[in-house]
Amino acid sequence: MAHSACHKLILKATFICLIKLACSYSFRSCIEIPDSNHTIFTCVKSYERDITAIVSDVFPTALNLTISHSNIEYVQSQSFDHLPNLTALILDANHITNIDKDAFNNLHHLQTLNLSCNNISFLHRDVFSDLHNLTQLLLGSNKLTNPDKYLFSSLTNLKILDLRRNHLYNFSSVVESITNLTSLIKLDLSFNKLTTLQHSTHLPESLALLYLGDNKLKTLGCDKSFLMNVKKLDLSDNKNLASKSFLGLKLENITYLRLRFTNISIFKLLTYPNVHPWHIDFSGLKLKNSHALSSLCVLMRNHSHKHLQIPKMLLQSNSIGALKNNTFRYCPSITREMDLSRNELKSAGCLQFLHNQTQLKSLKMEHNHLTKLTSCNKAEIHNSLTNLSYRYNRILQISGYAFSNTPKLEILELNINIIAYMDHKALSGLKDLKTLRLDNNLLSDIYNDSFEDLTNLKTLNLRNNEIAVIFNYTFQNLSKLDILDLGGNKISQLKPHAFDGLYSLTNLYLDRNHLKMIDVVLFGKLSGTLQVLDLQGNMIMYFTEHTHSPFKNMSRLYDLKLNGQQPNGINLLPRAFFRGLTSLKSLYLTNNHIIGFGDETFDDLKNLDYLTLDNSCAGVAQLQSGIFKSLQKLRTLSLENMGIKSFSKDVFGNLTGLKTLHLNRNPMMSLDISLLDNLTNLIYIDMRSCPLSCGCHNSDLQNWTIMNKRLQFPHLFNITCPDHPGSYFHNFDTKVCYLDIELYFFSSTSTLTILLTLIPLLYVKLYWKFKYGYYVFRSWFGEQWRRLRDQEEKYNYDAFVSYNSADEDWVMEQLLPNLEGSSFRLCLHHRDFELGRDIVDNIVAAVYGSRKTICVVSQSFLRSEWCSLEIQLASYRLFQEMQDVLLLVFLEPIPERQLSAYHRMRKVMLKKTYLQWPGSNCSDPNSAKELFWNQLKRALRSSNSGSQDEQKMDDNELRRKEKVCADKEEREYFVNQTPTEDEIYYLMP
């Protein structure tokens, strides 16, 4: 139901600031017509049986309310008491059987009440007592039998009362119920069961239109003056009504008397002086042949010498088979219309039967059996005839000069026949013709001289024929033509000069043809005047985005239809397709399966008012940001079934004038209401059949849909939750979304602050441990880790040599011969790493598959990331397993202050001794080198758990011998030398 005031949400202060200013409303069973300013409401196909439940949420400002095709059976007391401003209440096509006597109380402004097409058989005498301003009451198609005498007594302003298609049988009781209705003009009692017009009181003097057709009247049985004020009387389809019933009746004011399909003899009726023949409709009175019609004419002429002219003669449904030349010769002059429709005429000839009818303006011969229109080049001219209709016949062929006898025709209707051939000169001479209808025929060809004489033609309708090609200069003489309708043909080709001569054309309809492209040059000839262009249902398709706009010069076009291109839509829409359409107001692109829309697609459509893209997606669509940025004047946007799951905020851009937005049948599970912030004039948004999720991410949308009365959200209360069967979107539980929200905010922000503080510290301190753990895990995952741990003393190599490629010469020329020559097995990366295996896995396997790791340290080693990783892995093994697995060999003097940046290596050096390769400046290099190799070999032979004191003593001796050699080199190399950034980076944990 609609909420007349915004619900107050009990939330904490931190959440209140998140509530959007935009608000909306909805109704349980009704829709407010967009842009009606809360005055027009429709409630159609509601499953509610209680009418108060349907209307209870309708705004009190309602003026027009329609409730149709619903399951209502009973209208309760004061059902509309909260709608005092209603002027029209439509309750038709329901199942109403009973109405409470106070149902319409308080509706003092009601003017129209429609209760037709229900099951009402009884109405309480006071049911309309409060409707003093009612002017129209429609009770047709119910089951009323005998209205109460006072049923309508309060309706003093009633003008129209419709009681057709009920079960009324007592005419007198009906008259008694309306006798005081001094404003009543029209009473319709058609299709009831009345057998007589006997009465106990008179009709209201104001009553002018009385319809009594399709009853069971056998006699009128009324006073002579009973019908004296009636002007239009319909007694048709009372099959047993005889002529004598009119004897003596005062019918002087009758202007239209309809008597078709009765048993009345028109020849007898016209002998009564109170009946005026020029006011009678002669349809359906068995005037089958020319003799009967001629006799009728004589009676009409002799009836009164004062009326030598009559406005019209209606002769429908008389089974007339043929007309002779002198059939209407003796009739009074017919000035306006003759209607011979629904007869059995097989030929119209050249209208010879109209001899002597020199003032007739309109002739209708519809629904006959005409098959051909012959040439009338030498026939009698009927200069007065301006309207001629041959609709609904069987005309197959039109000969040349078929209308030469009617040169002043302005309207010619030949539609809905089977015309397959029309001679080149068929329409010759019709220089005054303004409207020509040839639609719904079988024409396949039209020629460049078919319309050459129609220089004043304004409307040409050729819809639904078999035309395949429009040839050059076909319309060259139609310079005044406004509307050309070629829709529903088989046109696949328009010749280059097809539209030449159409200097005034404003509306061109080419829908449902076989056109495959829009010819820029051809349509450009119409650019100065064309305002409406209908191209829907053709075969237009593009294969490149770089196509020039076919509309670039159509600056006056305001309505363009391109929807439903066959077989699968336009698919690809060129980037500048609509360029030049600066005046366009309505654009239809439905059912086109367009792959995507560029953000500049609609840039030139600055005056667009209506845009529909329904069913124009190709799967899931994502509208480009700013796609509607130039459409500030757009009022209605329809995006139904576009495959849209979400919008970016810029999609709606500058749609400040948008009032109606249709998003129905899209796979949208949520809608961010901030997207609609710029739509300041939006009054209607339709999201029916969207699978809106009933979760916390939609809590704002739920609140927004029920806030207040600015924006209508139709059928909100029928939207179910696909993720919670049996639940409804408008009332799913959102309390959990707002509980202790400030605590959640505090907890989340506090946690985030702590993490942002700790992460940099952990990065600095534990980076290499994390990285080491990651690589160890990878190795373990490949089962390498398990193999190395389980085989603690079973090694593949005596030592893994970690070195930089810059020191490869020393390794290959010095280290490798001295150690492998002494039966040591060394692992070198360029020689022993497994091919195809990840390098990290190879390093881990080498470190843990060797008894020792020899790190050949130099400046190049310190700069290498892979060397840094290798020494890190070895040092982690050293500290973790507490075993002597790491040997450091310095190829050049590197003082501790330079190594301070690499505190992981300094930490190793504090725990373990290391070897220094004797330099060239040493006083006894050969002795020093011999001692170096002996110490290195001893270190390799020692077990991981051996005595470290003995080795430390030998190491110290070696260091003392080397110190003298190293001092000179250190002084030369490290003067003013500081570590580089790369040196600091590679070994920092």
UniProtKB/TrEMBL annotation:
One family name in Pfam for this protein: TIR
Membrane topology note: Single-pass type I membrane protein
SUPFAM superfamilies in UniProt: L domain-like, Toll/Interleukin receptor TIR domain
A GO CC term attached to the entry: plasma membrane
SMART domains, sorted: LRR_SD22, LRR_TYP, TIR
Subcellular location(s) of the protein: Membrane
Domain of life: Eukaryota
GO MF, one example: signaling receptor activity
Signal peptide feature range: 1-24
Boundaries of every TIR domain copy: 795-940
Keyword tags: Glycoprotein, Immunity, Inflammatory response, Innate immunity, Leucine-rich repeat, Membrane, Receptor, Repeat, Signal, Transmembrane, Transmembrane helix
Keyword Glycoprotein carried by entry: yes
This enzyme's EC code(s): 3.2.2.6
GO biological-process terms attached to the record: antibacterial humoral response; inflammatory response; innate immune response; pattern recognition receptor signaling pathway; toll-like receptor signaling pathway
Protein family per UniProt: Belongs to the Toll-like receptor family.
Protein name (database record): Toll-like receptor 21
